[in-house]
Amino acid sequence: MSDTPVAKRPRMDEVQPAQDQAMDSQPEYQRGDIWFEDGNVVLIAQDTTFRVHRGVLSNKSDVFSGMFSVPQPENMEMLDGCPAVHLSDSKDNLTHMLLALYNGDRYFDLTVPLPFHAVSAMLQLGSKYQIDELKRAAVHRLQRHIPSHLEDFVGPYRTLPSRGDPLISDFVDEHAIAVIDLAWRHELHALLPPAFYACAQLRSKALAEGFTDPAGVHWKLSRKDLWRCLEGQRSLRTQLMFRMQFLWDKEVSPTCAQSSWCKERLVLERGRTVTIQLSATVYRALEDSGWIETLQLCKPCTDHFVWMHDGIRQDSWRRLARMFQMKDIVTWPVE
Ligand SMILES: [Zn+2]
């Protein structure tokens, strides 16, 4: 909570002038948001310090437990009478991890949306420090927005989840680029095909140049992932043609109740689809069949075309990993 610089205490080995000199050249530390007067270890990330408890960290993380079980060297840097541990994490990521461990309600309550950078921190540090519950909560939030099951794609693809409330407050389509990066780094392979599908809906500028998120982090597709995305777009376009094929076939359903009416409706929709809908939905192979219900066909025709459409949609889903050139990397579809 405070930005007050923390006066550095001399190391225990003050008698060694060379080391003291090295310390003098370091910047002043800022006190981080988490500071317990009864804490017994000070974590340092960038220039920020956090006074916390070894027991709390060890209880949640085998990595911290191992770190603290190693005997402390005699010349260990001390701050406020506590041993100081330098971590390579960003101070923002560490703040989120410690807030989650000490005051976790907000982080683990899946009715409370969190900003993307908090979820990203939970995933990154949950993986690094082997805090499984933190990692699991982050993955759950990501999957709400990038679903790994077809039944969770309802309607056209949107940034808001089609089922349930948003769990990431500032999630936008471009975050799919960040999800791909995180999924590769943390081996969350089930997120990759749907994240590439979401990415394929983006404008080419975002695909080529990347995206700076609200926390100022720049995310960009690797060259190989850009290639995967472009290959996927070609396949999605083909799938879309199959999905809408019935509009071009001259056949109504075998059990059509109003043949001339339905044929007329199909011709009308064909024109509307080509001029309006197709360009906007060209990569949306997973759009559900809700739009067919709006065509005002007779019931047998509606049922028939929904059945055909859903078959092609499910085929697109099964082929998603293949479309994005990762069938040998990802087990897909997930159970
Ligand atoms: Zn009909």
UniProtKB/TrEMBL annotation:
Record Pfam families: BTB (PF00651)
InterPro entries tied to this protein: BTB/POZ_dom (IPR000210), SKP1/BTB/POZ_sf (IPR011333)
The species this protein was found in: Cristinia sonorae
Signal peptide range: none
Domain annotation BTB: ranges: 39-110
TM region(s), chain numbering: none
Domain of life per record: Eukaryota
Segments for region (Disordered): 1-26
Protein name, as recorded: BTB domain-containing protein
